């Protein structure tokens, strides 16, 4: 079976590597142009070995169109004469001409327990929502967003302190294993899928930088989930508001929810504990603008808390 891999970033890499290691007939790679790597242009993808580098080392031809859905992109895809597309975090919604190019259509490695969290950022949305489980679903790609029949699915528990990046690193090899299993089954004949329950569908649209802003009026556990969800991108941030000084933008990367006194959300207490809408939030790790990432203790040595300090607000004018 002639396979074309379509994917970008570290979530896709284990699947691509697994296909190669298993001796599958991978005849081409479609991946995003290099300018979309890492944090450029608002991409949420982490960078690893690099899909194009993996392909080059394996002698697999690569195309990197701005859009695979253009006539030129479809023609380049058809030139591979694929039997099946294997898609993982590619970053573009596939149009009918692309899906119709291979003989047996396309399958997608999706990082959620579908039908929950359809969209570009399923892992982050699951963590932000406080889910205790996530997983991977292999679907047959249809015209609806992540709406195809489910061919395989497996769950795993989310660690209470796990970030989006950390969970992705565990889900990616799981996706590779499930994908290989589906492909092996497809070689033996048609694979029956399970229709997704439309009543259980939830959405997971792509986050933007402004979504990282922390709302201190929310309960502390919800804020902790938000901070976890925003790592490694777009990151959770806020502003220290100190009397007589300009606002200081800080990225908060680790925090703990505590029970504690109520008060005005955003009030900064001793030890870098913050009053929230319900309970206290202990900031454990943060990064002031222009500085390195540091612990709360390191931060407090340089910026000791004084009466009247607050945290919150949007970007200063």
Count the DSSP helices. Answer: 8
- Global structural class: alpha/beta
Cα separation of the termini: 58 Å
Shape: elongated
The number of distinct structural domains comes to 2
Q: Helix amount, in percent?
A: 10-25%
Kindly report the CATH topology of the largest domain. Answer: Rossmann fold
Series of secondary-structure elements, N-terminal to C-terminal: EHEHEHEHEHEEHHEEEEEEHE
Based on the coordinates given, report the CATH architecture of the largest domain: 3-Layer(aba) Sandwich
How big a fraction of the residues is strand? 15-25%
Largest sheet: 7 strands, mixed
- CATH H level of the largest domain: which superfamily? Formyl transferase, N-terminal domain
Q: Catalogue the unreliable spans.
A: 36-44
Order of strands across the widest beta sheet?
A: 3-2-1-4-5-6-7
CATH hierarchy class name of the largest domain? Alpha Beta
Q: If you average the pLDDT, what whole number results? A: 93
Overall radius of gyration: 22 Å
Report the count of strand segments. Answer: 14
Describe the structure.
By secondary structure, the protein is α/β, with parallel strands linked by helices. The chain folds into 2 domains: 2-200, Rossmann fold (3-Layer(aba) Sandwich); 209-311, Methionyl-tRNA Fmet Formyltransferase, Chain A, domain 2 (Roll), CATH 3.10.25.10. Helices cover 25% and strands 24% of the residues. It is built from 8 helices and 14 strands. The strands form 2 sheets. It has a 7-stranded mixed β-sheet. Strands 8, 9, 10, 11, 12, 13 and 14 form a 7-stranded antiparallel β-sheet that branches. Strand 11 and strand 12 form a beta hairpin. Helix 1 runs parallel beside helix 6 (164-188) and helix 5 packs antiparallel against helix 7 (220-229). The longest helix has 25 residues, at 164-188. The protein is elongated.
């Amino acid at each position: 079976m002639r396979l074309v891999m379509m994917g970008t970033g570290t979530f896709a890499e284990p699947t691509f590597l697994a296909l190669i290691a298993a001796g599958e007939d991978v005849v081409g790679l479609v991946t995003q142009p290099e300018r979309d790597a890492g944090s450029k242009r608002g991409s949420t993808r982490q960078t690893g070995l690099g899909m194009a580098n993996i392909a080059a080392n394996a002698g697999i031809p690569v195309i990197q169109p701005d859009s695979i859905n253009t006539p030129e992109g479809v023609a380049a895809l058809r030139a591979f004469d694929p039997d099946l597309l294997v898609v993982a975090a590619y970053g573009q919604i596939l149009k009918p001409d692309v899906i119709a190019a291979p003989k047996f259509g396309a399958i997608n490695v999706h990082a959620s327990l579908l039908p929950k969290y359809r969209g570009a950022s399923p892992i982050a949305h699951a963590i932000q929502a406080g889910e205790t489980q996530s997983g991977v679903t292999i679907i047959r790609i249809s015209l609806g967003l992540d709406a195809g029949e489910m061919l395989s699915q497996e769950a795993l528990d989310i660690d209470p302190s796990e970030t989006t990046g950390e969970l992705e690193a565990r889900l990616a090899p799981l996706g590779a294993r499930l994908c290989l299993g589906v492909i092996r089954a497809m070689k033996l004949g048609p694979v029956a899928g399970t229709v997704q329950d439309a009543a259980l569908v939830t959405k997971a649209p792509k986050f933007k930088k402004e979504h990282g802003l922390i709302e201190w009026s929310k309960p502390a556990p919800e804020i902790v989930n938000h901070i976890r969800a925003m790592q490694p991108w777009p990151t959770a941030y806020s502003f220290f508001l100190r009397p007589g000084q300009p606002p200081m933008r800080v990225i908060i990367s680790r925090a703990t929810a505590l029970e504690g006194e109520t008060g005005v959300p955003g009030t900064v207490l001793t030890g870098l504990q913050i009053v929230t809408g319900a309970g206290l939030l202990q900031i454990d790790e943060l990064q002031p603008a222009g500085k390195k990432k540091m612990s709360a203790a390191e931060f407090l040595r340089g910026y000791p808390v004084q009466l009247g300090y607050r945290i919150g607000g949007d970007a200063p004018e």
